[in-house]
Structure prediction request, 93 residues.
Amino acid sequence: MTSGQYSLTGGFWSAITAIQTPGVPLLTITLNPQFSTVTVSWPSSATNFVLQQNLDLTTPNWVTSGLPVTTNGAIESVTISPPTGNLFLRLKQ
Prediction:
């Protein structure tokens, strides 16, 4: 459906997005198409924060992520293969 300056297309969309919460360190998502993975990273200065994950936001059940965290001194990161369905990540203080 289109008209003027808008367009609406039915179907399913798949997206990897980051939604920033004020006061929380920024999570950055980088697609690694060569390896079919994504890397989620945040500043190492976020020492009082824990990475949590959830599969469904309609019944929030946030748990500490078991993903292995790597660091280069300034940046902490996890690299994951895109899951089937949704995977939501957040930093929790």
Q: What stands out?
A: The two ends are 44 Å apart (CA to CA).
